[in-house]
Amino acid sequence: MRRSQPGHEREQRPASENRGLERAAAACRRNYRQRNIVGIGIGVKLTAGALSDPLCVQFYVRRKRKHPTRPLPHFVYARRRDGGVDRKRRFPTDVIELGRPRFACRGGSAVEAVGELGTITLIVESRGGAEPARYLITCAHVLGDLQSSPPVDAKLRSTCCPSIGPFATTLASSVARRGSVDYDVALAVISSPCAAASVPHTIAPDTVVRDLLPADQILPGMTLECAFPVSNVVSARVVSRRISLPLRLGRRELQVKHLYLLHAAPQPGDSGGPLRTGASLAGILVGMAGGFGLFQPFAEAFAHLQPISPLPISLFEPASQEAIGGTG
Fold it and tell me: What is the pTM of this model?
C-alpha cells in the first residue's frame, strides 16, 4: 500500500464539499472573463509566500492590479448540482500572478547542451535485440517547435557525449493542434557511440524508478523531488490541481493542458526535468510562470507518446525496455 504523501490529508474532505468547490470554480470560469485572467483552478492558498492548508479557488492573472476595474472576490459560494448558489458554504480565493507563462526552454532550439537548453527526463534501455539500444524522453518543445513530428531538424547534440555525429535523433514528438497542446513530450534514439557510453544522471545513480505515479494521486500540498540542473531546485510542493494555461513559445502563444503549478522557480534549460516521489516518477517540467514551475503528469504524457511513436515503447518490462533514470 502506498503511504500518503505530506499534504494529502487536506484532500481528504467530504465528496460533497469537493464537488461544491469544483462547481464554484467552474462558475468563476464562466463569470470572470477578464483579459488579465489567464486561468481559474483549484489549489492550496498562498499566504505571505507560504502554502497554507485550505483548498481554494485560484485566479491566475498576468499581473496584480492595485485598483482593478472589477475586483476579484475574497471568497466564493459553493454551487449546488442544479447550479444554484449555496450560501451555507463558501470557499476562500487566491490571486496568483504568473506574468506571461512560457516554456522553460528557448523555443525552437536543439538540445546542444542538456544543462543549458533542456533536460532529458528519462533514459529507456531496450533489451530485446542483440545490441541494447537507448532512447531518451524529454519535452517536445526542447527538441523542436511543436509544429511537426518529428521536427524538421531531428538531430540533437549534447555535451553528455561529444561524439562526431549527433548525440540522438528525434523519432516522435507532440504537436500543437489548433493552438492547443495536450502533452509536451518527445522520444529520441541515442546514437550507437553514445548509447554505449556512460551518461551522467540528474536522478541519483542509486535511485531506482519503479513505476509511474497516477495523475489522480498528484494533489495540492504534496512534496515532489525535482531534478532541475540549471536552477538546482531539489524539491517543491504542488500548488494546484490540474489546470490549462497559455504559454509562450517564441512569438506564439499556445494553450497547454494538463498542467500543475509547482512552488518553485525553475530556469530556462530545466525543461524536461523529472519530478518524482520516492521510486515513482510523477511529472515532467514543461514551463515556468511568475516564480512557479509548470509540469504535466508523466504517466499521461508517456501514454500520449506511445501511439505516436514509430516503435512500440513500454516501461518496467524486463523483456523489452527498462527505465534507468534521468540525465542532465
Answer: 0.82
